[in-house]
Amino acid sequence: MLNLFWHELRSRFGAILGWGIGLALFGAMNIAIWPEVGEQIQSMAELSIVLMLGMDLGSFAGYVASAVIGYIPLILGIYAIIASTGTLAGEEDDGTLELIVAAPLSRWQIVTVKAIALGISAFLIIVIAGLGNALTLEAIRGLIEVDVTPAEFFVVTLSAWPITVAFIMMGLFLGAYLPSRRTAALTMTVIFIVSYFGLLTVRFAETLEPLAALSLFNYFDFTATAFTEGLQAQDVGILLGVALIFFVLALLSFRRRNVTVGAWPWQRARLSG
Amino acid sequence: MAYTFSNPLAKKATMSGAIVETQGLTVYYGKHRGIIDVDLSIDEGEVFGFLGPNGAGKTTTQRVLMDVIRPTKGRASIFGLDCHKDGVTIRKRIGYLPGELSLYPSMRGRNFLHMIGSLQEKEVEPSYRQELYQRLDIDPSRRMKEYSHGNKQKIGVVAAFMGKPDLLVLDEPTGGLDPLIQQVVMELVREARDDGRTVFFSSHVLPEVQAVCDRVGIIREGRLVKTERVEILTRRQFKRLHLSFRQLPPADAFAIQGVSETGREDLTVMLEVREGIHQVLEKAIPYGIEDIETPHITLEEIFLAFYGRENQGGNRA
Questions:
Q1: Full-model pTM
Q2: Which of A227, B93, B109, B146 is the Cys-Cys partner for A61 at CB 3.0 to 4.6 Å?
């Protein structure tokens, strides 16, 4: 089983480096412009479009929380959709899953190994991004006075992991439940978009505010309070709880799945065992 | 038998006689038929050939045995254990080669084999794996995406055989291989049998089935229509008689139930006789029999007799 795990992790090595370095460069660019355009950015803090996007541009901490850390789960959402639906569902579509399922491993072991590898890959991507952010901040600290230390920046960057892993587990479940990668990716994309833009919308209408609880982004802080108040254990708990629920659902779905068949759930319901 | 089991589970299977057993095995894909009421029994140490056209249900049956798909009803057991409930225990002792082999493109052949080997019960002997590389003429250091279809198939063959498993489940093992390598695979199957191991082997290549299989099962439209020892099947299914006469009998001379005339050539009448051989001879004697030939019947001819050429090809595997 350890060999399968290493294979899973090794096969994601390129993605980890690519997404990690990409995010680090994205962060570096946004951080590096602060000394030059910081005042300009702060002057935009009260613009309605900025408020509508839920951004906090009133301080350096608010700016990097919104413009750097806030985008990490949004960008990694794409990775989550690609990687999670590519696992199980994608492998089934490609035909590579048959030999793994036919190996002396139980279905729960296969799902667990793949889920752990996915979770670790997302963590490593965020670690690379966090290191990039911290190093860039360290590089510009001499030029400006900022209210954030590189260490704090690194830690707050890691707060993007729980929401990312929640989306990854959702995708893993959809891949184990729906008949093909295409349907899983499509469903996941719709949920992701509705979750993000739906939250921005409902925050503007008081009557819709209760719906905010349905969006995973509701539990991810991308304002300056992420630095001042630190990680909210309750939010992290909710996100990891959601991840766990989807992981269990993925386990149950895959345990019953007829691999290589690409059947809809109601077709699988006819099967015994 | 030279081979002895050390696993107590194997003793259980030996006591019941059959290594592979299915009862009323049925699989439906939604409304579509996979297999229906398949009762199959494969004994320890035999090579069992599974014959049938595309879509007949060969792959479905093998996938149920490997617990890749689950039956709609019926049960399947291997080594006396349930294929679903005890799947992990069972699969430690099986070498499986799927019919539609897909391998991780960026993985090297050696790494893939190492991963598969590490999951099997018996430790893979490096010298035997090396021998397989040489006999199959495959370089395992390359990435899967660099291999041709045939070379990927060779990697699959190595994966199935390298652990010397107690049971080999092979779905079209020679597909995509050149004739020389096909012969090597058949040798490996024979060696497995000589070693006391069991092989469940589906194929379209009837001569190779005939060459290595002890018994065959013929599956048609999801139903197992015949299971027989190869030599009995080829001997008993029907006999071919080529009768040469001094005087040619009339066209309806052999219009007997169970007898069909397949052709005439000069003074020779060619018959396929399923029953009533004595009636054929009684009818033939008055015309002066000069010679009697009983040409060998191949498995392919029997297979075609079961299906008819018009049924070749078809739906889903």
A1: 0.82
A2: A227
